[in-house]
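Many introductory courses stop at the sequence. We go one step further.
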Amino acid sequence: MAGQKTTGQLKKKGFSIGGSVSDKDLVVFTRQFSTMIDAGLPLVQSLDILSEQSENPTFKNIIYEMKLEVEGGSTFSDALKKYPKVFNELYANMVQAGEAGGILDTVLQRLADYIEKSMRLKKKVKGAMTYPIVIISIAVICIGVIMVFVVPTFAKMFASLGGTLPAPTRVIIALSGFIAGWGGLMIVVVVVATVFVYKQIRSTDNGKYITDKIFLKMPIFGILIRKVAVAKFTRTLGTLISSGVPILEGLENTARTSGNKVVERTIYEVKSAVTEGLALSDPLGKAGVFPPMVTSMIAIGESTGALDAMLNKIADFYDEEVDNTVSNLTALMEPLMIVFLGGTVGFTVVAMYLPIFKMVTLIK
C-alpha cells in the first residue's frame, strides 16, 4: 500500500510539471484502448497498462489519474471530463454514449478514425497556408537585404560619378532610402499593430464571426475554408450519430467544435429548427453556408434512415475535395510566386546596372 501511495504521489508531482498531449498521442491511446476493451481486459487494467507504456510524461500522469478516478467509482466518461484540454466535449460525450450502449470499444475505434482524419485535414490546410507564407517571407528578406545593404553601396558610387541616373535606378535608390530609414521602422510598426488589432478583434465572439465571414468570402482561400468546414461538420456529426449520441446533442457538440463562428451559428440555428420539429436538411439549405449537394444528400439520408452513413460519405468526398483544392492552389501559386520573386529581384538588379551600362557606352 505504501509503495502504491508513493507511486501515486510521484505521478502527481510529475503531472504538475506541465506539457502537452498531441493528437497523435490521443489516437494511439484511443486505438490501443479500443483493442484492449474488445479483447475483454477490464477498464482499470487497460488504463494501468496504457499509463505505464505512454512515452509522454504529461499524458502518462493523466491516464494514471483517470485510472484512480475509475477505481474510485467514477465512470470513464466522467474521468475524461476532468481533463477538457486533452479530451474535448465531443470525445467525452461519445464515450458516454458508448458506455450507455455497451459498445465502448466500437466508439473508441470510431473516435480514433475521426481524430486521424481530422489530423490529415488539418495537415492539408496547413500545407496550403505554409507554402505562400514561406515564399513571401523569403522574398521580403531578399528584397530587404538588397535595399538595406546592396543598393546604398551602388548609390554612393553613382553619386561620386555625377550625372543624371536612369528613372528605374532613381526609384530603387529612393525606395532603399525609405526602407533603410524611418520608413522601415514604420512598416514594422504597422505590421505589429495590424497583428495586435487582429488578435484583439478575434478575442471577441462578434469579431470572430465578422472575420470568419470575410474569410469565407475570399476569392481563393474562401472556397478551401468552406470545404474544410463542410468536411468537419459532416464528419463530426456522422461520427456522433453513428455512436448513439442523440441528434440535438450531436448538433450541440458539432457547433462547439466547428472552429468557425459562421458555421457555429448556422448549426445552432439548425438545432433550434430541429427542436421545433423540422428535418435537418430544411434549415441547412436555407442557411446558405452549405452547398445544395450537401443538403440534398442529407435529405436522402434522413428519408432512408441512414443519416450517419450519408454524412460520412459527404465527409469522405469533401476530404478529397480539400486535397484537390490544396494541390490546385499550390500549382497555381508556385509560378505566381516565382514570377513575383524573380521579377522584383530582377528589376532591382537591372536598375542598379543600368548606370554602369550607360557609363560603358559613353566610354566606348
